[in-house]
Each structure stands twice: as C-alpha cells, then as structure tokens.
Amino acid sequence: MSADATPLKRGRQRLPAQLRPRDAEQPGSGRLWRVETVVLLLVGLLLAIATVNDVVLATHTNHRLVVDLRTWRHYTGHNYKNVSAEQDIRKYTTTDVVCGNTTPGPPKERIQLCLQVTGPTVKGLRAARGGWYLPPKADNLHRYRYGCFGPPKQQGVCPR
C-alpha cells in the first residue's frame, strides 16, 4: 500500500479482489445490472402492494369500529362519548365488543352494558347479537360478566 492512499482506499485494498468495487464492468457481464434492476423493482413493487394492503385493512377496521360505536349508541339510546370498542384479536374475526356506561358518568364508574356486534354494516349500523353487563370499575373479563343475553349466553362467553 502506498503512503499517499486515503483511508477509504486503504480499507478497500484490504478486501479480497472479488469484493472490491470495480472501476469498469468486466467483459461479458453487461447484463448483470439489468437483472439487479428488475429484482429491485420487483421487491419495491411487493413492498408497495403490502403497504397499500395494510393501509386499506387499517382503514376498513377503523370504519368498522366507528360503526360499532354508532351501533351501541343506537341500541342503548345514550349519546355518550366515552364508549369503548374491542376487536377480536385472538381469532381475527369481525366480532367486536362495545361497552359503555348505562348512566352518565366517567368511564367504568357506573354499570356498563357491553354489546357483541357482528355482521356487515347495513344503513350505518351493525347487528348487536347479544351482550352482558359489567359492574363498576370491572374489566371486561368472563368472571365479572352478568345478565348475559343472546348468543354470548349460549356460547359460554359468560359465567354460568
């Protein structure tokens, strides 16, 4: 190595000959950049499709949750702002649970009515197939549920 070589050049010279950057393409290998370009374009296209798919899925999920909140307000007749919606993340279905207070007050400070909402959106609402009540300050766990009605009672979603 020469003494006037820059640190970058000295670092490159330590590499094996096959790994060093070339100043010119070797004879007979002029198509390699075309193959690399096509592969990079295909990878970029795959990433773009995956991104669009993810954004569309998130948008549809958000719209569904907004409809669930509207459905709870419609069925209960209460126009409360602090209503919570939970998705079924274990089985990845479109069955959601929407809970809100039965009387005005801070979230979870009153008895809550939870509805199991399923099916497609029809006229801005989804079907409430059943539900249960929760005592104040209780999480939505099986052991706290009572007064079950509809399919949740038959499916064993509520305690016996």
Task: Tell me what the structure shows.
The protein is of the alpha+beta class. The protein is 36% helix and 21% strand. It has helices spanning 7-14, 32-76, 151-155, and strands at 84-86, 96-101, 112-122, 125-134, 146-149. The chain has a 5-stranded antiparallel β-sheet. The longest helix has 45 residues, at 32-76. The protein is elongated and about 85 Å long. The model has no long low-confidence stretch (mean pLDDT 85).
Distance between the termini: 83 Å
**What is the strand tally?**
5
Order of strands, main sheet, comes to 1-2-3-4-5
| Order of helix and strand elements from N to C terminus | HHEEEEEH
Largest sheet, in brief, is: 5 strands, antiparallel
**Radius of gyration, Cα only, in angstroms?**
30 Å
* Gross geometry: elongated
Give the helix level as a range of percent: 25-40%
Helical stretch tally: 3
Can I get a quick summary?
With 160 residues, the chain is an alpha+beta fold.
Topology:
Layout: H1 7-14, H2 32-76, E1 84-86, E2 96-101, E3 112-122, E4 125-134, E5 146-149, H3 151-155
Antiparallel strand pairs: 1-2, 2-3, 3-4, 4-5
